[in-house]
Amino acid sequence: MKRPLKFRLPKGQYWTIGLPYFWLLLFFALPFAIVLKISLSTAAISIPPYESLMTYADESIQIMLNLGNYLLIFDDSLYVQAYLGSLKMAFITTLGCLLIGYPMAYAIARAPKKHQGLLILLVMLPSWTSFLIRVYAWMGLLSNNGVINNFLMWLGVISEPIQMLNTNFAVYIGIIYTYLPFMILPLYATLSQLDGSLLEAASDLGSRSLNTFWKVTLPLSKGGVIAGSMLVFIPVVGEFVIPELLGGPDSLMIGKVLWQEFFNNRDWPVASALAIIMLGLLIIPITLFHRYQAKSMESDL
Amino acid sequence: MSRLSKMSFSTIMLWAGMFFLYAPMLILVIYSFNESKLVTVWGGFSPKWYGELFRDQQILDAVWTSLKVAFFASTMAVVLGTMAAFVMTRFKRSWGKLTLSNMITAPLVMPEVITGLSLLLLFIHMADFLGWPKERGMLTVWIAHSTFCASYVAVVVSARLRELDLSIEEAAQDLGATPLKTFFHITVPMISPSLAAGWLLSFSLSLDDLVIASFTSGPGATTLPMVVFSSVRMGVSPKINALATLIILTVSLIAFICWYLARRSERKNLPPAM
């Protein structure tokens, strides 16, 4: 990194930077501009189902920006509730993943070095098998005549099944279950690099283990906590599949609403506006994540 | 002693967490051998749902489509991701580099509905203005998957590139190798484990993706998650249990083989390095 590589890749340099740059500009940045554009247009019964922003008539170009979609969203309590529901769901599940994942990551980081690889593999393995199938597994467990209810009835704890599937409870379980590995991985990455001598120093100076944890371990692993939380929080806000399969009519999440607006109501402008507002809500967490990502890249140099 | 009592809480949590992660999948595997059509009532041991699964042409077609898309998407993702990682680690700090690294890491966290929606709208616009792609299908899913998988490859590969000793590459160039030759003869062999890891990761991500594929595919290209999703939405079906078991077994097998190979090569390399 110290040497600016002037002699390297005189012509190839443009290719190396050009191809991924062009690809991402075309397939990642441009699409957002289009979503923004459509969110400002008016829905119409045509193909595609919205009206063009620009009209040319009488030698003048008219650009009509329709803010109606945004006003509609803020006016309709259904959409507002869906946003709030998603944020609440994301917040609670992130906290849940953190509470379960932190001790797990800590235990793995403290395990003998030769076991750490295997333990991390065991944590990550479920997330490589299909995500859909893991959600599906919970459908069988949580349903009224499912394994958990049958087991509880057999124990005699309950006399009739508890309604678990199609409730918010099921959605919480499903989300924590599927996103837990994404919390553990960055936590493990920071915890395993923690300098053990600092912990020793703390205990030599008479700090008790819980105190050491609060004053030394937790502050030093802040980066991992932020990265893991963002890796869970951001995608959960837009989650569609889990509330669709495990949730009931009252588990209102914005990803589900967006999907329905787009595919069922075919209201593309409103769906686009929903996406733009969702992005707006996520700007702060996304920036936080990027800052962590940039910092961890710098510190490795 | 204090170490033991301090560890015990997190160790208990570790095993409880592992139980939480694996119990549902284990139960799924057991119930895939259930004779009964009712998924939750045990009707005796039978492998008959596996037979049913292999007679379901729709599922078999979807498996094939998914495998093809995943193969090409992960290959493209490795090319794009490696180039981006190379730019991120080897090029001077510049405005262009910063934009590139922001764009490549963004899909890591972007909600899938947003990515899917925006790509679909892009393809529709392109069809309007350029006349291409004429209809959405395997090609558009391939583009979408290549894009988001490239992010993961870039992260994995750039971590490895940063660890590499630059002096070897410089020595090769001092001895007259062209940059391209240096890259393929020196850099690629040294980063090949992370290229393989990035490829495998992309492959499994692409196989697993439902939301983005649903937005970007057309009538001709139904991937496996799309078939599973629509059949699961109708209700729980024992055939899906059998399919799930096969997926879980395949993935575990591949993961453990990779882990074993990695550990063995590590051991081989360790003694001289010590």
TrEMBL record, chain A:
Q: Which residues form the ABC transmembrane type-1 domain?
A: 83-289
Its membrane topology: Multi-pass membrane protein
Name the principal localization, coarsely classed.
membrane
Q: List the InterPro entries hit by this protein, alphabetically.
A: MetI-like, MetI-like_sf
Query: Transmembrane segments in this chain: where?
Result: 21-47, 82-105, 117-137, 169-189, 223-242, 268-289
Judging by the UniProt lineage, the source's domain of life is Bacteria
Pfam family for this entry, one: BPD_transp_1
Keywords, alphabetical? Cell membrane, Membrane, Transmembrane, Transmembrane helix, Transport
The family annotation for this protein states: Belongs to the binding-protein-dependent transport system permease family. CysTW subfamily.
**Name by which UniProt lists this protein:** ABC-type spermidine/putrescine transport system, permease component I
Q: Which organism is it from?
A: Shewanella psychrophila
Upper lineage = Bacteria, Pseudomonadati, Pseudomonadota, Gammaproteobacteria, Alteromonadales
Automatic annotation (TrEMBL), chain B:
Query: What Gene3D superfamilies would the database entry show?
Result: MetI-like
Q: Name one GO biological process term.
A: transmembrane transport
Q: What is its main location?
A: membrane
Q: How does the entry describe its membrane topology?
A: Multi-pass membrane protein
Asked if the Swiss-Prot or TrEMBL record annotates the protein with the keyword Transmembrane helix, the reply is yes
Q: Where does the protein end up?
A: Cell membrane
Entries under CDD domains matching the protein? TM_PBP2 (cd06261)
Which parts of the sequence belong to the ABC transmembrane type-1 domain? Answer: 63-258
Q: Which residues cross the membrane?
A: 12-33, 69-87, 108-127, 139-161, 182-201, 240-262
> Does Membrane show up as a keyword for this record?
yes
> Could you state one GO cellular component term attached to this entry?
plasma membrane
Stored InterPro entries: Bact_Polyamine_Transport, MetI-like, MetI-like_sf
Q: Which UniProt keywords apply?
A: Cell membrane, Membrane, Transmembrane, Transmembrane helix, Transport
Q: Which family does it belong to?
A: Belongs to the binding-protein-dependent transport system permease family. CysTW subfamily.
Name recorded for this polypeptide: ABC-type spermidine/putrescine transport system, permease component II
